[in-house]
Amino acid sequence: MPLLKRSSNVPTSAKNPLPTPPKDESPPPAYTSQASDSASAEPPDITAAFSNLNLNSTKQPTPDQCLAHLKVLETFHQLREDVATRDGLFGIRDSFLPAFKDEGQRAQRLMQIREKRWAVYVTKAAQRFEKWWALSVQPNANPLTLDQMEDPLTYNFTRRQNEDDRWHADRLPPIDVLMVWHAYHLNPRDYLEDCLRFGKMDTWKAGFPWAEINSCVDNDTFEYTATEPAVDFWKKVTGLAWDSLTDDQDANVPCPMCQRPVEIPWTGWTNERQWQVGLHDILRGESAATGFADKAMRAQCNGCRTSLTGETLKLAKFRRDVEALKDFTIPMPGSVLNMDGLPDKAVHGIRHLASFPDRLLLKDIDLQRRIKDATNPAFSANDMKSVRTAIERSLVLGDGVRIANGSRTKRLTKEERIAIRRMMSHYWGNSSPFALDLVGAVIRQGSFIEKMHAIDWIHSPAAVSTMKRLITKYTRYMTIIAQHPNKVAVPTLDVDLAWHTHQLSPQSYYTYTVDKTDKFIDHDDKIDETALSDSFEWTSKTYQKMYKELYSECTCWYCEAIRESHSSSLNSLSRAFKSSSTTGIDDQLANLHSASEHTTGPHISAHNAIKADTLNGRTQREQALQRKLERDYQRVCHRAKKQGRNPPPSRDEYMHNYAYMGMYPIYMPYYAPYMGDPPIGILQSHQIAGCFYTHDVGTRPSVGTGNSNDIPEWHGWLSPAVLAGAIVVIHLNHINSSTMNVYSKDNLSYAYNPVIANDRTPWRASLWRRLPWLGFGALLGVLAGIAAAIAILVLSDEQPVKSWSLQPTVCLAIVTAITNILLHFALTEGVNVAWWKRATDENTEVADLHRYWSYGNSLLAAMTSGRHINMVAVACIFVAIGPVNGPLLQRASRVSLARFQQTTNVRINIAQELPNGYTGFLSGRGLDVGLLAPAFTQTVQSENNQAVINVTAAGCTGQCNTTIPGAGFAINCTVSTMPYALTYETPAPGEDFNTSQEAIANGTLSFGSYMEWTWQAPGIINLGVQYKNDPACDGELQIRNCTMTAAVVDYPVIINGNKSTIELLPGSSMFDDKVINQTDVALTSTSGPTTLGGLGKALSNTYNSEAHLRFAAAVSYELITTGATANRYAVIAENSTLGSGTASYKNCDLSFTDPSNDLVQAVRSLMFRTAIAAANPSLSADSQYVTAQETTTLPIYESHYLYLGLAILVTSLGWLAMLPIFAGWWHVGRTVTMSPVETGNAFRAPMLASSDGNAEIDNLLKEVGTRPIRYGAVATGGEYSRLELHEPRYVQKPWGGQTFGG
């Protein structure tokens, strides 16, 4: 039966012959089908619940919306069944099925074939959806920009939806596109952010068009039948076929390099070979199928020959998004919503935390270059890991954080780290323009759709009651989330239906969840089963505790075992306190598995979850969980038997260096076991007293007699094995007579020095007695050195340089040197223990002892140990690397500049009242100012030149912000208007202009600025402004009059203590000056000095100006100006034409801007400069102390903890590598060293034959330390001399070419 039909009419709801009341108001039934009490009862009408659905928009989901959702889900289910079982679709045939003896394997492979058809279909549906989304859904929408993110109106999600924005049945898309859109809604945060970024918020607010879709879904067959206009509209807009199954076009993808369209087949699983098992039990198609919907997708552009893969498409998406950010300031995906899922609204002065990736990609030029290289499609080796590496390099090794935030620190905040991860998560498995892979979203929803089909609520006669009940349960579920924001709440399947339905109305869902939880709750369907199990158990307990009802109703053993774990405590309590609510829960638990078909029933709790706040990663607790569930299952079985029920089925039955710090050179100590191996010489083969050393000396645990002429070359420094060949003669059972002659009593008197038995040292192996205190003390010293380095960097971080008499770098160099010395000393002690411990072990070879010594003393030997590597070699290598911590720690501390703020008291001289007669002199009958005072004249010149104001500010050494009381003005302004008319009447031909017209006779004073001081009001400066602000010929003049009265005011100022200057706070005005009190300025004489008259004279000379505009007949409009101010504020229209004379215009469209604020500021600036100049330091009123906020810039030490961490890591590796070589010290019976005397004693050399065999080195030296000794040739009485250590009187210097015996 075809699923998609075309009809000009929307189908009506045809009734089944099974009538039942339209709405069942009886108590909600259980979620299992109940047998009818009467076999003869008339079957119910299963379509009655859908006959009259009210699908208007509501704040919460309604039963009718849930029922409409069930209809749509059933349609999706039928679509999947039809696609999956259509043999040959996309070239995938059931006949590809190999021959299997096992029917289970055959069924599994057949399921894989059909699932592949569905996956290809969904991939094609996602491509069709992308085209529909771009061309049909608000196609002219403007994307969100960074500037718009600053506007609160951008996030007005609660605006009432306009009718024009709503959906119509004639605009609905095909069923496959509708299915993708449905899954898109069920990722609410991604959907919201995409709608914001794409500018499609009207679509977001409109939500899923329930009524329109419901009208197109048949109540009986659940077929989706669109109207003819909808089909025509789809074809016209997208150019695609309505039915995806009849659309034979290949996938069309633009080439990332040349943008040419590249056609790619949908799948390569189109032959039988692809479905055969290859290497590692993997189907061949996994690597051989290269279609667009395949895992190994590959194609090549026919134009530029660029290879297209999944990685190149993801890189192309990232590159496009970065270019859109740079060119159009469109934010990157994942940078709009914060951690709570809410838009990161702007707060003045505070950075957007979520948009940190945008700032980083916009401002870091080096990162932009690396991103461009990493996303270049010409380099096939590039992938998203290359992008991640580029970003990590900018954040960790570069100045990305500092550049992005415009701050001094390079540290990432938690929110900024999450913002980077959130942005990158949109690209790892997603090459579409959307925030998530919509193909995966649809596939994941398939499980939920199958469960809805299996539970078959859509055919329940009590469907309405069921929907009411699950909505109530959903509301309770959201309450649990709101009350436990740090827990993972897991919904049951019934809750999830209501939850999904609510998400399909995004505006209502957003408002509801934000109001209830202060977060926009997301829907995560990718949580693993282990995390779900624990969280489901917690959710069940919480629900049961809050509402005294059972949370899950399921028929599998798994959920009953979970419920046993959280209800056992209630069962125990119920035996003592048998409440009615607990009894009800017991009854519900008892009936869970009463149905006969429990093994095939739907698993209501088996669904994915959400994370209300934070979610930990995958935990490693599967085995513990399995054991716990098994115990709970056994208890359930026991209880079932006790209650006379059959036990529930088991689960199986159920189914990754500069030597400078700032500007200072550093001292870089280096300490390692060896820079090289000092060569000692070559031991020639020779016979020694009937004993010999051959190659076997290093390979076998025993030594024999005989001769050898093939002794290898040995290099080293006092190797125990070499020492044994030089001073040690091993006593064997066969010693010839010549040997006895050499070692006679006459020749070796020391051989007969007996040691008293009572002086012998006993063997005492002990855990505490033999503890290598020096070695462990050195290891503790290393830890102390690490702690000291941490303390130095922490204590010096952001501290002024002057606060440290000894630079942190010097301290770190000292600490590093001591730490490395202790580390090497500990290695030496550890090698001592390891060598002697190895010597006590069974099956030890001489070569083993040599290697322990050699690896512990030679880095080269340790690094070339090969298959003989041991813990001593590992420790030596790591200790040798240890001195790298020196330059790392030096890099960990740098000097930078920082600003500090503190409160300080500043003394400054400023006059609160100007001295009488300070500014000028009156003269003439008009009592006008005729001359400025000399001191004031200098002040006026400084003001005109905008010279800095020098001042002595004791107590301020940096930049000080404060307010200072001084002579100023209290201002009061009024605003008014006055009409003007410049339009003239054109005379009739042959007549003259009517000169009585206003435009000709008077014109208008289009601009006037006046500063005025009069002797009648000696304490006042008047400002008058009149200006024409409209280019029109007729209109109103703007008039502003301000009276400025002498007063004491608080000036907001900035004092620069370093330069001894002062200035008014930028951006402040006279209106910001706080008036303390008005001052009385008296005129003492009508001819003589004046206090403010000179000020007024200077201001009027500078700023008084007029511009008079009138119509002058034949020369058109005439403009006459005086003063410079009018020219400064004149605005000439673009189409004005300059007349023939100076300052003459042919048009009346000249206008002016308001000069009043600038003129007031000029009065204030001159008055402030005058108050500073007029101050008398000897007057207490003029010498003022004020409290200021001082900001100073000082050099500080800045710690970089990355280098500290690396230094600690290097040191810790050496520290940890040494612990194993100390193991076994308790097996050694004395304090041991690697002294050649002590090892020679252990080999029982003849010179030490009579010494204490267990003597410690100090006692051994007391016994034999004074004996003379020399190394050379010793005559044996035979053919060859021996080369050994002996008493000097028996030793001769070997000659060149001499050979030796053994």
Short précis:
The chain crosses the membrane at residues 714-735, 773-794, 806-827, 869-889, 1201-1226. This protein has 1302 residues and is α+β, with helices and mostly antiparallel strands.
Describe the structure.
The chain crosses the membrane at residues 714-735, 773-794, 806-827, 869-889, 1201-1226. Residues 1-15 have a biased composition (Polar residues). Residues 1-45, 595-617 are annotated as: Disordered. This protein is of the alpha+beta class. Helices cover 39% and strands 14% of the residues. Strands 9, 10, 13, 14, 15, 16, 17, 18, 19, 21, 22 and 25 form a twelve-stranded antiparallel β-sheet that branches. A three-stranded antiparallel β-sheet has the order 12-11-20. Helix 3 packs across helix 15. The radius of gyration is 47 Å and the shape is flat. The protein starts with a strand and ends in a 10-residue tail after the last strand.
